[in-house]
Design brief:
transmembrane; transmembrane helix; metal-binding; elongated; 39 helices; magnesium; Calcium-transporting ATPase, cytoplasmic domain N; alpha+beta; 5 domains; nine-stranded mixed β-sheet; nine-stranded antiparallel β-sheet; Calcium-transporting ATPase, cytoplasmic transduction domain A; about 15% strand
């Protein structure tokens, strides 16, 4: 960019209103006090006083663990779970004589589970460490002792070091800007890594340090900075520079924050103020709010139920054990003499039966511990990580234009995606593209532009009575605004068609002088930067917002090309309306009063080549119309009418105005303004706002711009599908009511058959009170008005319900001012009740805080799962407040994505994320948890029945290692396969039948009825396995020589039945088989036999009851195999019968869809299922036809 020089006026003197800034208080007086005690010795870090301060180095670590604390800290994380604490206690107690099994058999499974989780944590932390190493070893130039800049690593920087940063490099620490490649010490900074905003920020050095332009001048530079202590506030900085015997107040304008990037500036010099973890970006590096899914919270309750069951059966067993023990030795007589009750230890002493019962209770707590699934947590974590990988790699959610796939930023909430009851969505950039196109304008009361917007087409259909079910497809309207001139080259940001003012024809219009001024305002009143392509010579613009870029491009296309910006001037190629020729004109830039949400306008003050002082202004209609001069309202009525029409068409409007300033007037104002700017009083900001307001008066209206923020592709179809899935959608937007409502119609959120309930505070009475300025009266009247409107809304809904069977749907529209009162404690419940009874809700003119408050209200009042979706920094509060936050990686930066749980590139991908992945994940996790509890109850209660059968002796039915490996090897892999791969229906059928999603919304698959049903099935299975096995084997001769089955054989047979039964139960429950499921299910059964052979061949001192038990005793006996078959079939029969009855007489939604699919396949209606692509279906029909021909 050219570096012009202006000695009289410097760009650093221009005042810039920041879009986000804190109120300026008299904080400089606090320097040296607590919180403002940091001292930096510039270019003198080796100063003895500096060394005594011992500030942190610039080394940064974002890891959760270090080599020293990994083991203790990770173990602490693991044992925060109740189940793990229980198993740890059992492991310790198992070293005592009370244990019914060997200690090592308990320790190894616990170590495997804890170790697997710790390895996962270590891998994740190692990845973070690699990123830290990369960042800490980046290179930067530091001013050394030899008075030259030398390269060093970021981590070696110290407070006070002088550094040089080049274009497109990141700042290595928080720096004080001394000077730059521009003479006035300005530079442009991209802060996307800090706040997600892609627009460039202007920073400028103090005038005192701007001349430091070379190494010789830096050699003599010595200064001291006294400033605030490290803090997380990105939008303020308080400090003082002591240099050359003078004090200079410092603000955020002089600060370059770590991880922001230098743009459009060749280089800057800066002094390191904050390093490492003291930098503002690291102070802000906190984890997002911890969110847990509802299923996970319910799972904790189930664990507590199982613990309660464990204590109950242990207590019952101990009571019976104590009673039986006491009876064994009474009056000198021994009932069970073979147990030698007269010569026994304390664990079985009839004389001390109460103590024996207590000790037995402890033994039973360990023995029945297999009711608690030790591998549940680690299995769920593994499954969720794998599910997240499938989400990340889904090609149907990959957006090729921006090369962005879907990204699950957390795996904790996968199943919540399948239970969404309410979606709260931003509009701009979320439903729309946030890619503005200049499409219409009104100049001097004349409307220009013939393009049709998507909203206008939807309105036309609504007026013509087109059925809403046949909504406009986004594919159909994709070319709607450009069809007037398809041969014309497409220009991003410009979709304007009107030959009256294009190609220079505006010079022939009646108000050509007004058109010239209008276009000149668009070309000058902005903060955009021109970027020239060196190869093609074409100019593009880097602007703070898409709107601003669209205005500059429109001005260029209509004859006013902005091509150069220096520190103090803006240059244009203008079309002169008198001569009709292009001329170059340079405007001297005096002041820039930037746009902010409170001012709602932007102005620049320039001096034209004719030495005229011009104030050029653009802003919201509410801000501009009240500032018009009496003689500047010539076209006001026509312009307001056009604004209303543009808002109805879904367009965003800005009013354009100007005025000519007198030299004396401007000098007097500038003097006051500079004085206000230099003041350090508490009212500094208010004073400058007031002065800016004074100069922005007596404006002359020129016209209004209208830009279209087009709907994203597929939005109407996506909203329709989500509505069919029973998901309610609310839109929370900062746009005008008319714009938001018409966007609502365009995207099918509002329908023709809906009756609208509008809550607004635009009544004449309230407007009159506002003009009087009586705050108490205004508040009282507003509350009364809102209460009345809510009551009227209720009456409309109640009348519609009573009136006819075809009840009308309602849409609620409320503006931001009304929403502020509706969210007060005495009104929020009634407002919510009204809103929840409406099919659609649109909140207009909403602030970021209101978005978060509405989200909290919905979440707390419904108690159901809410999802917020947005794309900008103003949506962060809403995303973090909702149960699930989905960020759209769009035009407004990555702030929303960084605060989200899931990130997608387009709103339409939400359909697949919820209806496919959400439904699958919810179903898989629900079934997985239910199955976990089923298999553990089945196994645990066989131990209980066996102990009851043996007078609660405390003897386990199985070998120690059988029990230890049950959850780790013989039943764990099939349940993981279920959680990762199972599908009740295919992705295409999930999308074809959105009503299937209601299974998750209604929580059918993880209701208490279903959970208790699975638990009962486990209890029933344990009864069948134990009693059928014992009654089949104990009375019968087991071997050829007539010997009956002993303890070892009975244990192996019963365990074999358990392994077969729970794995076959899995096979029955699975809907979608892959080779992986087959491998894991049948492989687990096969592994049991392999383990039995290998373990049984080990020395008897190690294998104990398992020694040769399969090879020599069980395998040769036909009874073993027959009993296994009989017991497994009988165990599976109840569930099989229940599912057969349910599928036939009370089918669930997925059962109905599966039956439809099977019927369509049987009837040769291959394409009826909609499951296969068209080409594949065609080939299948062709192959089937050929097979029939051969058969005939």
């Amino acid at each position: 960019m050219p570096r012009g020089r202006r000695r009289t006026i410097h760009f650093s003197k221009l005042y810039s209103f920041s879009c986000i800034r804190s109120s300026f208080e008299d904080v400089h007086a606090k320097i040296g006090d607590r919180g403002y005690s940091r001292v930096v010795y510039c270019n003198d870090p080796d100063n003895s006083e500096a060394l005594q301060l011992r500030y942190r180095g610039n080394y940064v670590s974002t890891t959760k663990y270090t080599a020293a604390n990994f083991i203790p800290k990770s173990l602490f994380e693991q044992f925060r779970r109740v189940a793990n604490i229980y198993f740890l206690v059992v492991a310790f107690v198992s070293f005592s004589p009370l244990a019914p099994f060997k200690a090592v058999s308990v320790l190894i499974p616990l170590l495997v589970v804890i170790g697997a989780t710790m390895v996962k944590e270590a891998i994740e932390d190692w990845r973070r460490r690699k990123q830290d190493v990369e960042a800490n070893n980046r290179k930067v130039k530091v001013y050394g002792r030899n008075h030259t800049f030398i390269g060093t690593r970021w981590k070696k920087l110290r407070v006070g070091d002088l550094v040089k940063v080049h274009k497109d490099e990141y700042f290595p620490a928080d720096l004080l800007l001394l000077s730059s490649s521009y003479e006035d010490g300005i530079c442009y900074v991209e802060t996307m890594n800090l706040d997600g905003e892609t627009n460039l920020k202007l920073k400028h050095a103090l005038e005192a340090t701007s001349p430091l332009q070379d190494e010789n001048s830096l050699e003599r530079f010595r200064a001291v900075i006294k400033c605030e202590d490290p803090n997380e506030n990105l939008y303020s900085f308080v400090g003082t520079l002591f240099y050359n015997g003078r004090e200079y107040p410092l603000s955020l304008q002089q600060m370059l924050l770590r991880d922001s990037k230098l743009k459009n500036t060749e280089y800057v010099y800066g002094v390191v103020v904050f390093t490492g973890h003291d930098t503002k970006v690291m102070e802000n590096a906190t984890d997002p709010p911890s969110k847990r899914s509802k299923i996970e919270r319910k799972m904790d309750k189930i664990i507590y139920i199982l613990f309660s069951t464990l204590f109950v059966i242990a207590f019952v067993g101990s009571v019976f054990f104590g009673i039986d023990t006491k009876k064994d030795y009474s009056g000198g007589k021994m009932r069970r003499w073979y147990l030698r009750p007269d010569d026994s230890a304390v664990y079985y002493d009839p004389k001390r039966a109460e103590i024996a019962a207590i000790l037995h209770f402890l033994t039973a707590l360990m023995l029945y511990g297999y009711l608690i699934p030790i591998s549940l947590y680690v299995s769920i974590e593994m499954v969720k990580v794998l599910q997240s990988i499938f989400i990340n790699r889904d090609q149907d959610m990959y957006y090729e234009e921006t090369d962005r796939p879907a990204h699950a930023r957390t795996s904790n909430l996968n199943e919540e995606l399948g239970q969404i009851d309410m979606i709260l969505s931003d509009k701009t950039g979320t439903l729309t593209c946030n890619s503005m196109e200049f499409i219409k304008c009104s100049i001097a009361g004349t409307a220009y532009g013939h393009g049709k917007t998507e909203v206008e087409m939807a309105l036309a259909n609504r007026r013509n009575g087109v059925a809403e079910t046949g909504h406009i497809s986004s594919d159909v309207v994709e070319h709607s605004t450009g069809e007037a001139d398809s041969s014309r080259k497409s220009i991003k940001g410009f979709n304007f068609r009107d030959e009256r003012i294009m190609n220079g024809h505006w010079v022939n219009e009646p108000h050509s002088d007004t058109i010239q001024k209008f276009l000149r305002v668009l070309a000058i009143c902005h903060t955009a930067i021109p970027v020239v392509d060196k190869e093609s010579g074409e100019i593009s613009y880097e602007a703070e917002s898409p709107d601003e870029a669209a205005f500059v491009i429109a001005a260029r296309e209509l004859g006013f090309e902005f091509f150069e910006r220096t520190q103090t001037s803006i240059s244009l190629h203008e079309l002169d309306y008198e001569t009709g020729e292009k001329v170059d004109r340079e405007y001297e830039l005096l002041q820039v009063l930037e746009f902010s949400s409170s001012r709602k306008r932007m102005s620049v003050i320039v001096k034209s080549p004719e030495n005229k002082l011009l104030l050029l202004c653009k802003g919201a209609d509410s801000a501009i119309f009240e500032r018009l001069a009496k003689d500047g309202r010539q076209f006001e009525d026509q312009t307001k009418e056009h604004i209303h029409k543009y808002a109805e068409a879904g367009l965003r409007t800005l009013v354009v105005a100007h005025r000519e300033l007198g030299l004396e007037e401007y000098k007097a104002w500038e003097q006051k303004f500079l004085k206000a700017k230099a003041s350090l009083t508490e009212g500094r900001d208010a004073l400058m706002d007031e002065l800016a307001d004074k100069i922005e008066r007596e404006l002359i209206l020129l016209g209004v711009t209208a830009v279209e923020d087009k709907l994203q592709k597929g939005v109407p179809e996506c909203i329709n599908k989500l509505a069919q899935a029973g998901i309610k959608i609310w839109v929370l937007t900062g746009d005008k009511m008319e714009t938001a409502v018409n966007i609502g119609y365009a995207c099918s959120l509002l329908r023709q058959d809906m009756k609208r309930i509008v809550i607004s505070l635009d009544s004449p009475d309230i407007i009159a009170l506002e003009k009087q300025g009586k705050k108490d009266a205004i508040q009282k009247a507003c509350l009364a008005s809102i209460r009345k409107q809510i009551e009227e809304g209720f009456s409309q809904i109640n009348e519609a319900k009573k009136g006819s069977s075809s009840t009308k749907a309602f849409g609620l529209i409320i503006d931001g001012k009304s929403l502020e009162y509706s969210l007060k404690k005495d009104l929020e419940k009634s407002f919510f009740e009204l809103a929840i009874n409406c099919a659609s809700v649109i909140c207009c003119r909403s602030t970021p805080k209101q978005k978060a408050l509405v989200t909290r209200l919905v979440k707390n009042e419904t108690g159901k799962t809410t999802l917020a979706v947005g794309d900008g920094a103003n949506d962060v509060g809403m995303l973090q407040e909702a149960d699930i936050g989905v960020g759209i990686s769009g035009v407004e930066g990555m702030q929303a994505v960084m605060a989200s749980d899931f990130a997608i590139a387009q709103f339409r991908f939400l359909e697949r994320l919820l209806l496919v992945h959400g439904h699958w994940c919810y179903r898989r996790i629900s079934m997985m948890i239910c199955y976990f509890f089923y298999k553990n109850i089945t196994f645990g209660f066989t131990l209980f029945w066996f102990e009851a059968h043996n007078s609660f002796s405390g003897l386990p039915a199985y070998n120690d290692w059988y029990m230890s490996f049950y959850n780790v090897f013989f039943t764990s892999l099939p349940v993981i396969a279920l959680g990762v791969f199972d599908q009740d229906v295919s992705a295409r059928l999930c999308l074809k039948y959105p009503s299937l999603y209601l299974e998750g919304v209604e929580n059918i698959l993880f209701s208490w009825t279903r959970i208790l049903g699975w638990m009962f099935n486990g209890l029933l299975s344990s009864i069948i396995i134990f009693f059928f096995t014992t009654n089949s084997m104990i009375p019968q001769p087991f071997q050829k020589d007539g010997q009956v089955a002993d303890y070892e054989v009975l244990g192996v047979t019963m365990y074999t039945c358990v392994v077969w039964a729970v794995n076959c139960q899995m096979a029955i429950s699975i809907n979608y088989f892959t080779w992986i499921q087959h491998l894991f299910i049948w492989g687990s059964v096969a592994f049991w036999y392999i383990f039995l052979v290998i373990y049984g061949s080990v020395s008897p001192s190690i294998s104990t009851t398992a020694y040769k038990v399969l090879v020599e005793e069980c395998a040769p006996s036909p009874l073993y195999w027959l009993v296994t078959l009989l017991v497994v079939v009988c165990t599976l029969l109840p569930y099989f019968s229940y599912r057969a009855f349910q599928t036939r007489f009370k089918p669930m939604r997925h059962d109905v869809i599966q039956q439809k699919r099977l019927l369509s396949c049987n009837n040769d209606q291959i394409d009826a299922s909609g499951e296969l692509p068209v080409r594949v279906r065609g080939k299948l029909r062709h192959l089937r036809h050929r097979l029939r021909e051969r058969e005939s």
